[in-house]
């Protein structure tokens, strides 16, 4: 259902699917959440990219707390999220996306 939502034609549906997906606090789906953020950070809609930037800070903290046993995995996940944030800051022109990325 989330994959359909993230690929929907409507930007509001894609953004809502990402917000709901990243609000689920189950450690087993953290990697799926990160992939969703990566995909939405490259979306054509600035609103969806803004929601992806907002999700970065939510997921960054969870990487460490949900992977306490495996620090290497946590660091890799955090590095992916940092790369997404850097890409948004460097390449995005939309003001609302840049603001959300700076806050993240």
UniProtKB/TrEMBL annotation:
Swiss-Prot/TrEMBL GO biological process terms: intracellular protein transport; vesicle-mediated transport
Location, primary (coarse class): membrane
UniProt domain Clathrin/coatomer adaptor adaptin-like N-terminal: residue ranges: 2-103
Keywords attached to this entry: Membrane, Protein transport, Transport
Matching Gene3D superfamilies: Leucine-rich Repeat Variant (1.25.10.10)
GO cellular component: endomembrane system; membrane coat
Protein location: Endomembrane system
Pfam families in alphabetical order: Adaptin_N (PF01602)
PANTHER family cross-referenced by the UniProt entry: ADAPTOR COMPLEX SUBUNIT BETA FAMILY MEMBER (PTHR11134)
Family the UniProt entry places it in: Belongs to the adaptor complexes large subunit family.
Protein name per Swiss-Prot or TrEMBL: Clathrin/coatomer adaptor adaptin-like N-terminal domain-containing protein
Annotated organism of origin: Entomoneis paludosa
